[in-house]
Amino acid sequence: MIDPFLEIYNKIKREFNIDKIDVKCAYQSELKSFPVIVMKEVENSTDIINLDNSGEEYSIRYALELDIYDNNNNSQTNIAKIKQKIDDILNIELGMNRDFVNVTPNYLDNNIYRYNMKYSCIVNKNNIIFRR
Predict the structure, then answer these.
(1) Spatial distance between the Cα atoms of 79 and 97, rounded to a whole number of angstroms
(2) Cα separation of 44 and 123, whole Å?
(3) Among positive and negative, which fits the CA dihedral 102, 107, 113, 116?
(4) DSSP string spanning 55-103?
(5) Tens place of pLDDT for every residue, the chain, 132 residues?
(6) Within its chain, how far is the Cα of 48 from the centroid?
(7) Among candidates 119, 128, 126, which has minimal Cα distance to 62?
């Protein structure tokens, strides 16, 4: 199975570690530090056209979702910088499509600002990323 999540997650984590921004790979019921980025894989699928003659995957359809949370008075400014850096990595550097970027209401706590981003691509068995 082709699975680029850890490679992408570790790259994002390394880049934001410099700024002391926490990156998680699963939603936490209680977020303890801000800002924080939560990444999750939302698609890793294949079908008959993505298989070679032996039935082995040679590419997958792949998608990531990222939520950025912040509780600072300057949340919009902080998140603007974070989302630009995420886009520089995923869209510009890695070549993923940016499919969705928007503020998402945080019904659990409206003191915490939440921004949602979604990216997609095709990944081959050599972990090379192609735009859809």
Answers:
(1) 20
(2) 9
(3) negative
(4) S-BSEEEEEEEEEEEE-STTHHHHHHHHHHHHHIIIIIIS--EEEEEEE
(5) 899 999 999 999 999 998 899 999 987 777 788 999 999 999 999 877 777 778 788 899 999 999 999 998 788 889 999 999 999 999 999 999 999 999 988 888 888 889 999 999 999 999 899 987
(6) 26
(7) 119
